[in-house]
Amino acid sequence: MTNAAGRRLWYAQPAQEWNEALPIGCGRLGAMIFGRPAEERLQLNEDSVWYGGPRDRNNPDALAYLPAVRQLIGEGRLREAEELASMSMAGMPEAQRHYLPLGDLRLSFGGHDEPVEAYLRELDLENGVCRVRYRIGEVEYTREHFASYPGQAIVIRLSASRRGALSFKARFDRGSWRAMERTDPWRSCGLAMRGHCGGEGGRSFAAVLRANVEDGECRTIGEHMVVEGASSVTLLLAAGTTFRHLDPEQEAKDRLDELWQIPYARLLARHTADYRSLYARTELRLPEDSSWDHLPTDERLKRFGAGQDDHGLLADYFQYGRYLLIASSRPGSLPANLQGIWNDSFSPAWDSKFTININTQMNYWHAETCNLAECHEPLFDLIERMREPGRVTAQSMYGCRGFTAHHNTDIWADTAPQDTYVPASFWPLGAAWLCLHLWEHYRFGQDAHFLAERYETLKEAAVFLLDYLTEDESGRLVTCPSVSPENTYLLPGGESGVLCTGASMDSQIIGSLFEACLAAGETLEIDASFRAELSAALARLPKPQIGRYGQIQEWLEDYEEAEPGHRHISHLFALYPGDAIDAQRTPELAAAARTTLERRLAGGGGHTGWSRAWIVNFWARLRDGEQAYANVRALLAKSTLPNLFDNHPPFQIDGNFGGATGIAEMLLQSRIGEIALLPALPSAWHEGSVRGLRARGGYTLDFVWAARQITTVTVTCSSGGFCRLEGPGLAAVTFEGEAGRTYRFGRES
């Protein structure tokens, strides 16, 4: 087993396309580095560059026609119900806002006419730095790029091994959207680009570049910065919008004036210290073959896809998932969207928004387990901003108290339905699912102050559901209208439908939220009458049912599916990320969940990256290490791009995050008071170690295994309480943890 130090992605050639470029980011600012020697492109993003401004899109006819929609669904008149819902419930206009690129920084280098030799492009995961090295003739050129969270800027260091050998031109470029911006010189060696994001109520943006030149000369000509005869240059780039600053251009200039006075070595040291304070908390080692180390990452990925084992690549992939969250979600930024922060299209797929019927949630599954709890905070901030518009949507569309959201939201926390896509749009459970992230954060950290602060948010999401639920003919409380995202069912007569009453996922999410509110209220010793109301409603929710094929039913009725291999597997929410279905506590339901997965896969399921990542987590929760590993392999072999970005297709970041979570779930699972080590260990990972995984209840664990048996375990407690610890080769132990204490367990050799 080789040492895990030095994790990196590396390539022997420049990126020819965006899916080969390497990402850097500090939450708010990001760039894709192509590493081209003569004509470099840095594709830039700032998280608040979105088209258009806030607006009320709630359909004023929704509430008046809600009873008719419900009646048509109850009578089985699905076409009529869907037609009426499409008119009366769709947002006006139907689309939310979309995320935009900031633009490109183009660098054109002189003296690059001769062949390039000894080329290397790498992303250093240990330090959060992207480097490019190459030689032309007798001159070696080096570039270092990083996005500094302390500095809130992108830093680029360009250097040449021979004095005066570095000459280049720099300019901003926004392609066909150049009409929306203007670039002017700033000071003696800087550029300032400013413009408008577009659309009614859209915000203004600014990006500012400044150079610190060693030797040589720097001047501006038109929209270009020109550097000649330098030995090294540090480029500093800051950007922002009026979403945060009244004058983003001046704010960026002030920031660069401050950073310009700091030596590059100190800027790098500050960035590295900040980045490693998060990244270095967790380390994974698997049985790695050092003979793979001489191969670039894209070649290793090809060989892996051809069937060869490469556990070092899997460890890189795991840490890359953590790197991407650090780079796209930090306190003060917006949450990671469908592409994290990296988007090069002015009309991106699915608008590069926050899709909250699985994708945004998947982005944050590993935040707690993989020891990046601070990176969860931007999602919590968005949930809080959704409360006010969500109250308007709840009242105007459904006549309900509390707050709700549908299957998408955007920078403005829009909660009205997105699109008129009936299989997805009219599903009011988005806020409820998001709020479970607040509860998970508490379960891991046991921070009572946080729980007290966020309790009203949890409660408000639950209040909406108490009002929204209706009683069916059996006395059960069910949702209507709703959908099972984004699937279609078949009636016995052959008619298909998507709108329904009581989709299984709905009851599972509602049950989880009600239970979270009950536990939170008990912990805080408040709201006894509300807890009684929740308990009564909880007892009337439909329970998971087993259908004719031995599967978990996706709908209240045992309908046939129009697409047996559908990418969404929503009816297994209770298996993951929920925990109501458990391999040991509910073996009959677990067996039905296994049948569900087998049927989905047999029908061609897992064909999108994020869906395959979800499947990894399902198998891990079923404690089937071989199936979990087979699906990790499929995720990398079939749904991973050369730069290790997840491929939906096109690129979506959720598969990276869900894949990292799945690997962690194979190694550690937890409930309050219970920790299971190596619950889904495949035979291929016969030895290994992990440091810094977190468990619910306030525990951080380091452990080592050999011959698939635990040898040593270290448990660090951030709170007190009893806990049962188990794992292969480790006699189950129950201990009373004390906050601030570390405990060690193991077995005799």
Question: Could you please describe the fold and organization of this structure?
Answer:
It is a single chain. The chain has 749 residues and is of the alpha+beta class. It has three domains: 8-50 and 99-280, Beta-galactosidase, Chain A, domain 5; 62-92 and 329-605, Glycosyltransferase (Alpha/alpha barrel), CATH 1.50.10; 688-746. 32% of the residues lie in helices and 25% in strands. It has 18 helices and 32 strands. The strands form seven sheets. It has a nine-stranded antiparallel β-sheet with strand order 1-6-7-8-9-16-13-12-11. The chain has a seven-stranded antiparallel β-sheet with strand order 2-3-4-5-10-15-14. Strand 27 (688-695) and strand 28 (699-706) form a beta hairpin. Helix 9 packs parallel to helix 12. The longest helix has 22 residues, at 377-398. The radius of gyration is 26 Å and the shape is globular. The protein starts with 7 loop residues before the first strand and ends with a strand. 54% of the residues are buried. The mean pLDDT is 96.
